[in-house]
Amino acid sequence: MSYTTQMDAARKGIITEELKSVAIYENMEVQELLNLVGEGKVVIPANKNHTSLKPYGIGKKLKTKINVNLGTSKDCLDTNIEMEKVMNAVNLGAEAIMDLSSFGDTQTFRRKLIYECPAMIGTVPIYDAVVYYDKPLKKITAKEWLDIVRMHAEDGVDFLTLHCGVNKHTAERFKKSNRLTNIVSRGGSIIFAWMELTGNENPFYEYYDEILDICAKHDVTISLGDACRPGSIADAGDVSQIEELVTLGELTTQAWERNVQVMIEGPGHMPLNQIKANMEIEETVCKGAPFYVLGPLVTDVAPGYDHITAAIGGAIAATYGASFLCYVTPAEHLRLPTVEDVKEGIIASKIAAHAADIAKGVKGATDWDNEISKARRDLDWEKMFDLAIDSEKARRYRTESKPENEDTCTMCGKMCAVRNINKILKGEDVDIMD
Ligand code: SF4
């Protein structure tokens, strides 16, 4: 029996190699996963042309996944550095890479990435169209926007962020809304500007059926972009955001009618107390399609530390329903991230994802914690380093600060509670001041 997409296969009861591999990784029954993929509650982004892919599932009951944004810009055009970030990201456990290149020979870099990288690859064709056509924005035609979508699908991209939800109606609402930070989505701002300049409807909305044809053919998962995601906590949960979300819910149903897999992008900046409700609204409006959050950043005041503001929000969001976290680096709002910025962003995001997996009871999530806690109890430093989310940093910190006694650290020395309790429980003397 043949199939187009993973969703189509699941609905026909076909167990694909990708589905089998995801079920093993998640320690889940194949039939349970098959049902979730068929219902759209789990996606397996796996373009048929991405032959080096290690497939992952994103969605309900699965481990929370993280995405790492990379790519060249006009000011930072070194593709070797970007490839170094890619391989570091994969080694640190990122399941997805989004290539957001906005300058240079983007197709060569994208193809190299797809050829070499086992992570899921995502792109935003809107940025690339502007680079590719290299002409005034208003001169790009609707057909040309769609041709870029087709090109990325043919190149092997596993998921595409498409800002289909900001149609004329949403745009009018936005213009009347008096938002503090307007539109902060790069793709959203470009397509909104194009709509204003040409007077035309958003081509990703108007020609959504053609986009579905392309995505069905290559099994590209659509990541429905949130052009109106709040860019400040003042704008969180406002009419523009919710209006667009309702449209995304409608587009989700249309995609599912064609067996196209869908994720929904989410905020953005959002106060802690709004995150749970926002996840629940998304779940209802978009019928359980996996939610992919860009943060959320829980305060606006921490440039230089936004990997932390995003990890706090990401942990809460994933606890209450988000399945996929887009990492944020300390460079957010400031510059293109360096290799070190990327590492810090990934670690923060992995912590958020794992913390949420513990909270929502993902199968086996606490095993890792229990293992490292045993090593900590036994003062088994090597094992702790091996199990640490950032082994290199944990090892370096201990090496840089040598204790007098090997079975303590320089924090408490011989007052080490762990060491002394171990000794007492073994019936040994405790030599604090000796
Ligand atoms: S010395 Fe203090 S901080 Fe260090 S391992 Fe022992 S109890 Fe923990």
Would you give an account of this structure?
- By secondary structure, the chain is an alpha/beta fold.
- 50% of the residues lie in helices and 9% in strands.
- It folds into 3 domains: 46-54 and 65-359, Radical SAM ThiC family, central domain (TIM Barrel); 365-400, no CATH class; 405-434, no CATH class.
- It contains 19 helices and 10 strands.
- The strands form 2 sheets. It has an 8-stranded parallel barrel with strand order 3-4-5-6-7-8-9-10, surrounded by 7 helices.
- Helix 7 packs parallel to helix 11, helix 14 packs parallel to helix 15 and helix 17 packs antiparallel against helix 18 (391-400).
- The longest helix has 21 residues, at 339-359.
Brief descriptors of the model:
434 residues; alpha/beta; TIM Barrel; eight-stranded parallel barrel; two-stranded antiparallel sheet; 50% helix; 9% strand; binds iron/sulfur cluster
Q: Which distinct ligands sit in these coordinates?
A: iron/sulfur cluster
Instruction: Supply the CATH architecture of the largest domain.
Output: Alpha-Beta Barrel
**Average pLDDT level:** 95
CATH superfamily of the largest domain: Radical SAM ThiC family, central domain
Percentage of helical residues?
40-55%
Along the chain, the helix and strand elements come as HHHEEEHEHEHHEHHHHEHEHEHEHHHHH
Look up the CATH topology of the largest domain: TIM Barrel
Strand count, sense and barrel status of the largest sheet are: 8 strands, parallel, barrel
CATH class of the largest domain: Alpha Beta
Coarse morphology: globular
Spatial strand arrangement across the major sheet? 3-4-5-6-7-8-9-10
Could you list the spans in which at least 5 consecutive residues all have pLDDT below 50?
A: none
Q: Provide the β-strand percentage band.
A: 5-15%
Number of helical segments with 4 or more residues: 19
Termini Cα gap: 77 Å
The oligomeric state of the chains shown is single chain
Number of domains: 3
- Report the radius of gyration as a whole number of Å: 23 Å
| Helix/strand class | alpha/beta
